[in-house]
Amino acid sequence: MRKRQERPEKLAVIALFCLLGAFAGCASRPYRINPDRAIRTEHLQVLALVPAEVSIYQASPGGLVRLQNMWSETGRHNLNRAILQGFAKRHYAIRLLRTEESLPSEMKQVLPLYRAVDKSIRLHTYGPQIFPDKVAHFDYSVGPLKELLEKLHCDTLLFARGYELVSEGPGKTYMSLALADASGAILWYGVKGSRGDHDLRDSASAAKLVEGLLSDFPEKTK
């Protein structure tokens, strides 16, 4: 019975990292933008970063894949810090929200919606099930955020997710980042992945990954 329960989870992890491998080898533009909602940087007064969700797995020589909680927490800390530094470098006022447990109840409803949106964006605008219309007209939303943003004293939310597979050979690392406004529309979404070039457990390496992703993100106009 236990083997039957573990098998779907294992297959899901394998499928995820097959997808990450595709991202790592992809040379196409790493970001998507909403064509109807151009980023007006002068309107972005305070960005709030939702604590990153990071999962780091270890693959044994025998093929067993296990989630490593301590590594994941280190990766989460490093990714949060790198994102804060990356936007501050581009002259944005940004702050990190507290842990999910202390966030308003509305956020606890938004997070599952964002996870579903994130999955759809990855699947249908990066692959393998690409919908050309979704790529050409990038239009995704997590629903209205105005009241939540007022409670959080900010005007924009940033959602971040990171995954890593550590193995004897070159590992696979991937992160995604999304910027949503008060309407809930995803204004900007980016992904960055690599095979063996980054390690979320290392702060400098995580910073390098984030900087690569934000290389085309506009600086805030003064």
Spell out the blueprint of helices and strands.
Layout: H1 2-24, E1 31-33, E2 47-49, E3 53-59, E4 65-67, H2 69-89, E5 94-96, H3 105-126, H4 132-136, H5 146-152, E6 156-166, E7 172-180, E8 186-195, H6 203-213
Parallel strand pairs: 2-5, 2-6, 3-6
Antiparallel strand pairs: 1-8, 3-4, 6-7, 7-8
Helix pairs in contact: 2-6
Account of the protein in words:
- The chain is an alpha/beta fold and 222 residues long.
- The protein has one domain (2-216): Rossmann fold (3-Layer(aba) Sandwich).
- 40% of the residues lie in helices and 22% in strands.
- It contains six helices and eight strands; from the N terminus they run αββββαβαααβββα.
- Strands 1, 2, 3, 4, 5, 6, 7 and 8 form an eight-stranded mixed sheet that branches.
- Strand 7 (172-180) and strand 8 form a beta hairpin.
- The longest helix is centred in the first third of the chain and has 23 residues, at 2-24.
- The termini are far apart.
Q: How many angstroms separate the termini?
A: 61 Å
Number of strands: 8
| Low-confidence sequence ranges | 1-9
Q: What average pLDDT do the residues reach?
A: 83
CATH class category name: Alpha Beta
Order of helices and strands: HEEEEHEHHHEEEH
- Looking at how many chains there are and whether they match, the oligomeric state comes to single chain
